[in-house]
Amino acid sequence: MAASLMMAPGWAQDVGEVKVTVVDGGSGQGVAGAKVVLLRLIPKYSYSNTKIFGAKPGAGGEDPAAEVLAALTGDEGTVAIRVARGAPVRVFVEREGYVQYGMSFETVKSAEVGESVRIALQKEGMMAGRVVDADSKKAMAGLRVTALLWQAVGESRALFPGGEPVTTDQEGTFVLKGLRPGEYVLEVRPARPEKFLDGGTAEEFRALAVRAYGRTYYPGVERVEEAPPLTLLAGGEMKGLEVRMRPRRVASIRGRMMAGEDVTDGNMGLNSVQKQGGTTSYSTVMFAKVEPGAWFRLDGVEPGRYWLNGSAKAGERTLGAFAYFDVDDRNVDGLELALSGGVPVELTVRPDEALKSVWAAEQKLRVGLQPVGRMFTRWDQPPVEQGEGRFVMEGVQGGAYKAWARGYAKGVAVGEVRYNGKVAPGGVFTVEPGALAQKVELVIHPATASIGVTTKGAKAAVVAVREPYDREDWQAEAKSAECDAEGRGTISGLLAGTYRVLAFPAGVAWRTAGGVLMLEAAAKVEVGVGASVNISLDMKRD
Predict the structure, then answer these.
(1) How many CA atoms, within 13 angstroms, populate the side-chain half-sphere of residue 189?
(2) Radius of gyration (Cα) for the chain, nearest Å?
(3) Residue 510 pLDDT > 80, yes or no?
(4) Can you say whether residue 44 is alpha, beta or left, with left for phi > 0 and alpha for psi between -120 and 50 degrees?
(5) Which regions of the chain carry the CATH code 2.60.40.10?
(6) What CATH number has the domain spanning 343-446?
(7) Which of 174, 194, 431, 539 could form a disulfide with 145 if both were Cys (CB 3.0 to 4.6 A apart)?
(8) Residues 217, 224: contact at Cβ < 8 Å?
(9) What is the pLDDT of residue 472?
(10) What is the pLDDT of residues 400-452, one digit of tens each?
(11) CA 375, CA 273: separation in Å to the nearest integer?
(12) How many CB atoms lie within 10 A of CB 225?
């Protein structure tokens, strides 16, 4: 056990492989010529569509430690890619004629080196139609059209983009491609503005009344609850859709961004906040430069909840601020953001008592804070390493965060997070800028337990979630494994604790298969350090 926890020189040369099988979601047959991209999640836990879907077969070459590796599946739809151990792996798949949009769970999976991953692709569908004025029937160009797909989230459903949005042409026509099967709502909204307007005076703003074409859903309703669902089959086509829009009163907002010191390079962002089921999503309405201290204005703001954030440079430092507010059809005045430099937070990674004797000081650790309930912004600075597992992150604003650490040896994991000495359930805590200290400890525990699962004579995906879990996003921390043809599989690399364990038929997109109620009804298993527990499970089919 001690050897497996040491970060000896040359550890990155420990090479395994990830075997990926790509099949047609309808026929179950292997898909030849599919591009499989493996992303090793270093040096940061993020990715871009450009990096992933721009990778050409052969990317990474003969270097298994490359961040991005890409290859094509063979005649049976299978490819094995050699990859260095020591970092999580995310698998992406791209094939012409099949759905391939962003973070589609049909085409993206997380895996450990040495795993076999099976990914089912869906034939892409399309929607086409025209946007017109409801009274004059005049074609409306330059509007953004998005197909929103209903998906299971928590105990309910939520709408997410099912494909890339498109802009209507001079004839008002649109064609949406790359859609996966499901129930859709068609959304049409004005193009994003390019800049904030001069805010003018308070008297001028009070007299302002703007009428414009606002967000509309097919066939011509203002509320998403009134929009009829459009059912698209795998590979199906829907043509002749007509969306009829009418001008109406829309709100304007006015505000300013202030700082107590000389600042430059001011930027302001406005994001729409949508809560659906157990999730919160942020979509950018506007992002542009603003002059600190000057009043700005933005017209055509739809009813809903919004997140306003600003940043500016004070020498080498980045100052930031944010605020939430609600909008109906009335104007909103007096939005003010007071920029601040935040507070420095000290993050320390240390082993628990059981690991102290085998913990190697030269481990290449990476740590960070993930904002909870908001997006990353310009003021979110990366932590700076101080040595011996200690990091300092400057400019941290108040609010909820989740701490993470990576880069430690195999066989261990973050078992506990403490903020100013108090345990943070699920690693989530709230930074209080006025606190006397800002210290976050990430305690590393052995991750050597395993759960052996037997399903009833069938291949399956088995999933384990450690308690306590995030009710709104339990899938994020799930560990999974594939069962063989006899229904046997092992979920390894687990911390000691209590787990909820489920099994799904092979190929099921289990990350969107159901909500937390299903998880709470799952088998409950307790494992100790280094222990192995065996259980039998029935598969979840809905």
Answers:
(1) 19
(2) 25
(3) no
(4) beta
(5) 12-121, 449-537
(6) 2.60.40
(7) 174
(8) yes
(9) 67
(10) 999 988 887 778 889 999 999 999 988 889 999 889 999 999 999 999 999 99
(11) 11
(12) 8
- Helical H runs in 160-213? 202-206
Pairing label, strands 439-446, 343-351: parallel
Question: Comparing C-alpha atoms, which of 246, 245, 82, 101 is closest to residue 161?
Answer: 101
> How would you class 261 by CB atoms within 10 Å of its CB: exposed for 0-12, middle for 13-18, buried for 19 or more?
exposed
In CATH terms, is domain 125-249 a member of 2.60.40.1120? yes
CATH 2.60.40 fits 253-338, yes or no: yes
Q: What number does CATH give the domain 449-537?
A: 2.60.40.10
- Two tokens, residue 145: 């059209």
In the chain, CATH 2.60.40.1120 sits at 125-249
Between CA 245 and CA 293 the distance in angstroms is: 38
Choose the CATH number for 12-121 among 3.60.21.10, 2.60.40.10, 1.10.10.10, 2.20.25.10: 2.60.40.10
Pair of tokens at residue 202: 């308070």
Give exposure, 390-429, as e/b (b: 16+ Cβ within 10 Å): bbbbbbbbeeebbbbbbebbbbbbbbebbbeeeebebbbb
pLDDT at 3: 28
